[in-house]
Amino acid sequence: MSKAREIPAGLSRTGEIAGHGNVASQLYDDLRRRIISLDLPPGTVLLRAELAAEYGVSQTPLREALQRIEQDGLLHVHPQSKTVVSKIDIAQIYEAHFMRVALETEVVRHLAHQSSKETMADAMAIIRMQEAIADDQDQLRTFQELDDSFHRALFGGVGHQRLHQLINARSGHLSRMRKMQPHDDRKIRHILDGHKSIVAAILSEDEDKAMAAMRAHLSETVTNAPQLRDKHRDFFT
User: Fold this and answer.
1) Does 20 or 227 have the greater pLDDT score?
2) b or e along 70-81 (b: 16 or more beta carbons within 10 Å of the residue's beta carbon)?
3) Taking Cα atoms as reference points, which of 162, 212, 160, 180 lies closest to residue 88?
4) Based on the domain organization, do 81 and 151 belong to the same domain?
């Protein structure tokens, strides 16, 4: 592709994105979301002049946003030239998954060790929202966002929200691969059952059981990485 894809209308009007918070941060969030969701697939060429015009911003905050996304490993920025969405790197997928399992199993161990009823109440509320839309394919993106909210709530329960942000920043390649996985009924059930098992184990104050539940919940994330790479070779390094 030779140009950026269509920008959401709410962000393209001049001044609107600048009217709320930090412009560069908003650009970072929106462009990164579009890359993760594969709206901007690997190999897409982003022309900075066109992006600036469509978002209605100057080159300075756009440059800062692109540099931050490059640090996440999702872009290759060529100064005075073009910017290209990076291809998915299998090695980085496994590295991010290793980090996620290590951190999240430790999080649930701490939650099982301490009194976590309030955090678990929040987690169960998220599960109920997921169940309410589980059968609606039109709500798949919302379901996935709630999945992220569930894990963020666990990190919040032990006071380590920044670690959840770190995982997200380092998991761009993993997150893109997850978007390529089929979210059929079996996958949806696996996610919901995993969340419920994690909560039940934490409430039972069984640290080993909580860690095992989290490890099982995350186990399917990378199992079909080689098959997805073979199926979508243009998307992978």
Assistant:
1) 227
2) eebbbbebeeee
3) 180
4) no
